Amino acid sequence: MSLEDFRKEVIDFIEANCAESMRQPMVKESDTYWGGRNATFQNEDQERWFTAMAERGWTTPTWPKEYGGGGLSKAEAKILKQEMDKRKCRPPLLSFGIWMLGPALLQFGSEEQRQQYLPDIIQGKTRWCQGYSEPGAGSDLAGLQTSAISDGDHYIVNGQKVWTSYGDKADMIFALVRTDQSVKKQMGITFLLVDMDTEGVSTQPIKLISGKSPFCETFFDNVRVPKANVIGEENAGWTVAKYLLTHERSAISSAVDADMLTPLSYYAKNSIGVDETGVLKDSILRSDIVEWEIDAAAFKFTLERINEEMKAGQAIGAKSSFMKYYGSELNKRKYELRLQVEGADGLVWDGERTNEGKVARQFCRTKGNSIEGGTSEVQLNIISKHILGLPS
Amino acid sequence: MSLEDFRKEVIDFIEANCAESMRQPMVKESDTYWGGRNATFQNEDQERWFTAMAERGWTTPTWPKEYGGGGLSKAEAKILKQEMDKRKCRPPLLSFGIWMLGPALLQFGSEEQRQQYLPDIIQGKTRWCQGYSEPGAGSDLAGLQTSAISDGDHYIVNGQKVWTSYGDKADMIFALVRTDQSVKKQMGITFLLVDMDTEGVSTQPIKLISGKSPFCETFFDNVRVPKANVIGEENAGWTVAKYLLTHERSAISSAVDADMLTPLSYYAKNSIGVDETGVLKDSILRSDIVEWEIDAAAFKFTLERINEEMKAGQAIGAKSSFMKYYGSELNKRKYELRLQVEGADGLVWDGERTNEGKVARQFCRTKGNSIEGGTSEVQLNIISKHILGLPS
Amino acid sequence: MAYVLTEEQQMLSDSARDLFKAAPVALVRELRDQDNEVGYSQDLWKEMVEMGLNGLLVSEENGGMDFGWRGMGVILEECGRTLSNSPVLTTAVAAHIIDRYGSEEQKAMLTEIITGGKSITIALRSTSRMSADECIVTADGDHYLLSGTKQMVANANTADYILLSALSDGVEQYYLIENSDAVQVETERYMDSRMYSRLSFDSVKLSQSALVGVAKAQRAIATTLISGLNALLSAELLGLMTEAFERTVGYLKERRQFGVLIGSFQALQHRAADLYSEIELVKSIVIKALDALDDGDPIATAYCSMAKAKASKIAQLATNEGVQMYGGIGMTDDEEIGFFMKRARVAAEQFGSMSYHADRFARLSSY
Amino acid sequence: MAYVLTEEQQMLSDSARDLFKAAPVALVRELRDQDNEVGYSQDLWKEMVEMGLNGLLVSEENGGMDFGWRGMGVILEECGRTLSNSPVLTTAVAAHIIDRYGSEEQKAMLTEIITGGKSITIALRSTSRMSADECIVTADGDHYLLSGTKQMVANANTADYILLSALSDGVEQYYLIENSDAVQVETERYMDSRMYSRLSFDSVKLSQSALVGVAKAQRAIATTLISGLNALLSAELLGLMTEAFERTVGYLKERRQFGVLIGSFQALQHRAADLYSEIELVKSIVIKALDALDDGDPIATAYCSMAKAKASKIAQLATNEGVQMYGGIGMTDDEEIGFFMKRARVAAEQFGSMSYHADRFARLSSY
After folding, report:
1. What is the 3-state secondary structure (H, E, C) of A187-239?
2. pLDDT value at residue B165
3. How near does any CA of chain C get to the CA of B189, in Å?
4. pLDDT per position as a tens digit, C94-139
5. Residues in D touching C267 (Cβ below 8 Å)
6. Structural domains of chain D, with CATH
7. What is the pTM (predicted TM-score) of this model?
8. Cβ separation of B371 and D328 shorter than 8 Å?
């Protein structure tokens, strides 16, 4: 089929299956569909859109057909994305299985494991969460202590994970566990899949400074996990983890980017007003806003440029650390200014009038940008070492 | 004599000996009198003022009478300073001997050494310079390599010093030399006095990014120096050096302070102008000036506060590092803004119209503030370790 | 004036510290989690009243302790350390205004304020941006009528009185009124877990005796209120940032990453040392502002705005560095460092934002 | 538009780099130490003319190479790396204006400019603050009379022509005039060792043909000049800061203190990594501004001012960090890092200061 025909097919497909209500921005939790054993649809439109996409494997357009993926070429996948973007179609399925585990399975999993897990990810039957961080470890991810002791063809897992997003709603977790205490810390880590229904697994949501959050703590108390659930080799989990971290870092920096579309000056003009020459009334705050807006635009262009350089064949390498670092700090600066722009109303925490203190809570939440997915300090270390080649 | 009588005596003395021309700000090099073997006076007024002060030992008001100092009590010295300040009297003698070597001799010198050197410092007969830094050492002062090899009752000195202020005009140098290569670097340093007329000593002025400077490089090529010229013990020079560095640090931060008296906004109003409501026309630059002026005022108050706390008996300790650090950075910020305030005229380098590019050269010179006398980085290390108690 | 505390001020500071030990940050959390509608501990307020804190800025002849702004600053600094909330800031400052400018009738209220614990809130201009007032007072026979709105009025849901500004023929005037049913009060919880209200006045009747001070005194009242409230908020921010910084440095000394204490990382050390320096500057300018108020020096207006602008900025820096250096833990509601950040942002906005005060300082310096 | 250079642009960049290898920073020092009154190397200028650089922004039909702003930016970036001085910036931009808006008579000059190396300087408004012009043109029979002053005009002591703005009945107009004896030129050496002049016009006679372009075109000329010159200066600053940064990082890798390479100190590493990030941003905005000019996109005006404001600021940071990290050596005239700092400050001020461009951007964004 020619690309032109394919485009036509895509358009017809969207028009037939993606209702108007599936083309509105997602604002509430229930507007998103995450799949999983206990999933329910918000309404028929959501179900129809998801089902139609999943049937074609278009929840994962470029994954191989043999596992139920779309099997599309890059060019076809681009067309699908273009036409969906053009119509503002919601993603039919949000899934850590698609964003994180799937790529790892395709890279490191055995054929058996791919056949076991990929179809359920594509069809939204299994909801996954990530178990990397631990309370003691922080930036020193490799210092993790959750232990998996060999017991015949099983491991006995004990320990605790934090920042497991939607851990309380997930069916399965992909976790890093320590299988060898005696070697250099990176060498004794294994990448392990654990069913959340196994006896001894429990979760508890984490409340953030911004209020409720999708994050959980997940506890493992003598949990028996089959050794067949290891991805890659035993004690070689660090390689898998590093592969996935790069994925995560890019995902975060593009999320930051999307939030940057409304100019700060728009809010400022609304809230503060302009003088007779059209200049913002608060000249000192204006000066900070100008500085921020120039940086934000220059950063946006930089993301475009690096994207283009990647397409031209340059390796992105440690530049993802630069994007993560700068994007996080920029977003924090934005919300410091946003608070000042909004004045008193930006400080309200509760109540309908302010949509439960949306600005104040977003402000608080941005403080995590430079911590999650590798702190700003860690990113600066990476830039210093891998881009600038400074000695350690 | 009562303090009141003393004040009267001081006033009479000043009126009798300090001519009107000696009460003008010093602007040219020849307005300052540094003494030394080859010194000449600018005019009779300068000579009379110096001679009268030196006769009474008031070039060093609180130094002991036995060495020719003023022998004044703290209260009397304060009165002398007050009355001189009130009349804007020029200092009769500028001297590294007074500021640096003298205190070290009084603390660490033998009785014989004090009698040999202090009177000539007080009488302005010997001009001293400091030989600490070396080209390779930088912030790592203790890493110095100028060697002094024992040869009977002499040392043979070889090596090079940099940043020896007025090295080309000095009669003597107090220098740090390495007398033991085999021990920890701080343990093998000796504090040594060297006559600049000795064979093998040569100097060469250093040109800075701001133009001509009082700094020199000083070279030692098989220079024979009597061992009697060691201050303190052989290999114990580091103690003397550290004592003197604290003196230097306070001196620099108070110099910065004096330069801060004219508000930046004064220059800005002159150069940029104000609108009909009296607000500076360049609102973005104004915002930076406001920030700087608040910091400058708060820093000035902090110097006052620390001064008062010292008087109340609190040890200044590592706070001198904080003052040095903040004062240097503040002055650099000031001149960045000053350049912007002056516009094109602030960028001129040569010619009478701009007093040989005074602003541009001052701007360049400020960049050295955070390097000389211990870099900002070294000061931050000291604050971190000695005030905050952070681990190394 | 002096930077070092007098013995008397030091004693006051010590007792305040003891008092607020009973009101730690945990209390802020508790009140919030209980959805407490008052927003502060009434038991603590009672103890503060017993200590006479409402009269610290009132002359002895009117039953106060006349400790001056510096003395009051010592109290606010301690409040800042534990994030302790109460109506003491506005009540003590309003009592000072009554003491100094009030009519005999108004002065008679001082006893119940100082010993009876009646609280007063203060509403300057209409927004924290401090642009022209939106409240208007018009004469109506032998009464005034007050109309308009006020934003972000602290503790207005529990205050007995309100000291507020309004325009009368375009001129800013100050009125002390009862917080009666005629005043519409919409109260919301802010980021710092405290309660602030939007007030609406729809032709609220005021007696002519509600005006505070003679016509000539109105500018002095405005200046004292803006300067005094902000100098005291700066003292609160000083206590807040000092505590947040000490906690952060403490954490740097105990938290390990990559096998070493994170406080041994030079990049963090330099940031901490720089922050230390900035806090030293805040301390000096806060003292200077309070002292200038005590001395009645006209430069106080500039110093108070400098103090508020600088304290707000460095409190922002200190709490951001705190959350960042605590890392993931700092992002959780379980850890207290976030409470410091939240209070810092609200205090910065009260009675004039950072940019308002920076601008005010520049204008006072004629540029 | 594209961020990646075309093959043609890459070749241009390579030849420029080769050319400027012969004009290293040492040449700047040499010219300065010789008190050279020209301020740039005339040999180098000749080679630049031979390469056709004056015609990079001129259409092929008028004898140019039509390489566009992006192509010209590549040249300026290389000039920035070696701090190379010449009249190419103003000459090439003025040639572009003549090509696009000039009369036939003016276009006839293009040949001698492009192949004969006649140089043109440009004087916008009267000061680098870019406030209203102080030059006035009045009609006088069949001539104009020009009076007023201009500040900081680059290479006016050697320029053959001057393209300048002046107010005619309060409207900004552009004139191309000969740099004749009637123009008073006072030339001074600036911090960057280049020569700039103050021009005075005392009823200087201009022929009516001196006006460039029709009345309607004047605003477009002004916009093109302000935007184009500043985008190119930003490209120069990009080259300058990149070179200064690379030298500094190189020094961090070779200089030892306390027994280790100073590049191993984490505090310096983080500062270097942050600076790296900032320079990446400058690179993107400079490309974006030049491309927008090439596309004739009206957003170019905003992008060019953003580029100049950002490039000036980061060049300041990069050169300050350079001098500081070089330490005492960086303070000596023997070390070249100081030359980068000095040129950065002057380039920042040329054709509109940092604050002028930040303000221009905000106004163009309607706030």
Report:
1. HHEEEEEEECCCCCEEEEECCECCECCCEEEEEEEEEEEEHHHEECCCCCHHH
2. 92
3. 28
4. 999 999 999 999 999 999 999 999 999 999 999 989 988 999 999 9
5. 266-267, 269-270
6. 7-118 (1.10.540.10), 121-213 (2.40.110.10), 218-364 (1.20.140.10)
7. 0.92
8. yes
